[in-house]
Amino acid sequence: PGFPQELTTVRVQDPRVQNEGSWNSYVDYKIFLHTNSKAFTAKTSCVRRRYREFVWLRRQLQRNAGLVPVPELPGKSAFFVGSTDEFIERRRQGLQHFLER
To answer: For the chain, what are the domain ranges?
Structure first.
């Protein structure tokens, strides 16, 4: 019999505005990970992270990736046309795509 296939699922969910209405408000997202990989001690984990922590992660990956291309993050738009909810949802999808790659 073969080995079971290793699967890892990652979801970026539940965006929340923190410090709403203040000059230092930001959005964070729930990152939920589920895996059967032996490389992980915990089979499920859940943390909240904000965009700048994804920027940090991408920099670390680039530093260690050699010639392997590191996926792009969704843009950090100061001039967004449309609703804040639309922007947050588009960013959520982009962050999930980044983690999946």
So the answer is: 8-100
